[in-house]
Amino acid sequence: MNNFYLSELYIYPVKSLGGISLQQAELVETGLKYDRKWMLIDEKGVFVTQRKYFELAMLQVGIDAERITVTHKKDPAQSISFSVEENTGLSIPVSIWDDESTGLEVSKLLNEWFSDFMQMSVRLVKMPADARRLVDPRYAENNEIVGFSDGYPCLLISQASLDGLNKKLEVPVRMDRFRPNFVFTGGEPHIEDSFGSFYVGEMLFSAVKPCARCVLTTIDQQTGEKGQEPLKTLAGYRTINKKVLFGQNLIHQGSGMIRVGDEIRLISRKPTV
């Protein structure tokens, strides 16, 4: 019998910028508190990510006393911060993939700072508290909602899955290439594919859809440089229906605290593909 334990916990307050490692986090309706609560948009209101703009990997996010700080990893003098409540009151239509939602402009100063960094016109927006962006109804169980993440409240990956991948690579990669919320120990590589419903501590989750991986995984989060790996190697043994799969998208019930060290207790399993 495998024992599974939560070993790492991450949030990514600004979509596609550097994540924050935590020892505990609050689970709210949209996922972990502050996770993908903010994002950058272009002049048309379309979300901006590392998939196209690799340099975003160089922006690290921190949070302290209800303030978000964004700092350049290679030049800490380039830094700016803002309150989690800050906004101008301007509501802007925004697009994330096929979803239409709404963002609140955070500040003109932040728009200028990010535009200077990216050398293009962008704005930073925050998801309004009353926004109701629905999880894909094909996978939702109870009209679950999500923030500015690609489509689901949380992402789970086992440490064994990364270890198994790294054994196949000439140069190992870090877990930050895959941007999980939860990392756990125990079991064989890709054991998470078999997870159905399960508890993390006292919080109930369902693994509803494997996570299809993209070019973002090929961007070194420490340098901003792009290569072919690990997507090339993953494609050789994790391609199913023309998608490269790694990790599981989750939905959940209720709210409460999640902590590193929490046991993951399986309620049900599903057939692996």
TrEMBL record:
PROSITE patterns: MOSC. One of its GO terms (molecular function) is pyridoxal phosphate binding. Pfam families: MOSC, MOSC_N. InterPro entries: MoCF_Sase_C, MOCOS_middle, Pyrv_Knase-like_insert_dom_sf. It comes from the Bacteria. Residues 127-267 form the MOSC domain. This is MOSC domain-containing protein. It comes from Pedobacter westerhofensis.
